[in-house]
Design brief:
mainly alpha, 75% helix
Length: 182
Amino acid sequence: MHFIYEWLPNPVTLIIGANDESVFSHMKMAFWSWTFILPFEYAWFKDTLENKKGFVLARVVSVVALSWLEALVWYVVPAIVKAELPLSIELPWAFATVYMIGLLVGGLERVLQKGQFDRYSTIVILILLALSVFFFTAFTFEKPWIDIFYLVSHILFFLLCKSISRSNGCLHAESHVFERNH
């Protein structure tokens, strides 16, 4: 998934792949990868499943939770280091994050698939899935103007730059603010 957009550049591969190394792009790739695996996993296990609905809905819950767990786990080391991670730390931490997320989500699936999902919980799970699809698709094409790590003054600056013509000075100042805060 990581390089699919680079290999086959078009809007569909942009939605499921990455065009940058942002955490959002990695969350999106995790979401779509887990989503695409679900039908194959179901086909593999369907004859042995006692609770098929529980199996599917547990996987859908994990698809929705996966990306957010990825962000939570990923940001542990940057929170401790308090600096941009050197590649010698970033790459092993990335692999460790993927491994830990697999363990967390796998444990969540194992517990949830045994449960019974009533109509209300099924609807909630499907709404969360639909919202996730919307989130990862919409923000693929235009990132939101607000981020949980921006200061209000930077948000106002960004909006001001967006509302006036994008002169080189505004773009340069905007990229400087972005670099300083990321």
